[in-house]
Amino acid sequence: MIIPVRCFSCGKVISSSSVKFEEKMAEIRKAGREPTPEEISREMDSLGIHRYCCRRMILSHIDLIDEILPFS
Ligand SMILES: [Zn+2]
Fold first, then answer.
1. How far is the centre of ligand 1, averaged over its atoms, from the C-alpha of 2 (Å)?
2. For position 37, which CATH number holds?
């Protein structure tokens, strides 16, 4: 729904990095292609997200808040 502020496993703050990550991925998609796994990995490294527990928090997140809001 909304990206959690901290990683569930290690407690690292990930929400601010998630916003930057999504902006970068949207930039690549705007160019007309999907980001490659190497680009995703490089971007996460540049944001300081090295642990796989934190990476899964961002990679597995699906933003559903805009779809749920009309029903509240
Ligand atoms: Zn973590």
1. 17
2. 1.10.10
State whether residue 53 is helix, strand or coil: helix
Summarize pLDDT for 29-60 with one digit per residue, the tens: 999 999 999 999 999 999 999 999 999 999 99
Number of domains into which the chain is organized: 1
Look at residues 58, 50, 48, 44 and name the one whose alpha carbon lies nearest to residue 8: 58
Domain that holds residue 30: 15-71
| CA–centroid distance, residue 7 to ligand 1 (Å) | 5
Cα(35) to ligand 1 centroid in Å equals: 23
The answer to whether position 3 is within a domain reads: no
- Ligand 1 midpoint to CA 66 (Å): 26
Q: What are φ and ψ of residue 64, in 5° steps?
A: -110, 0
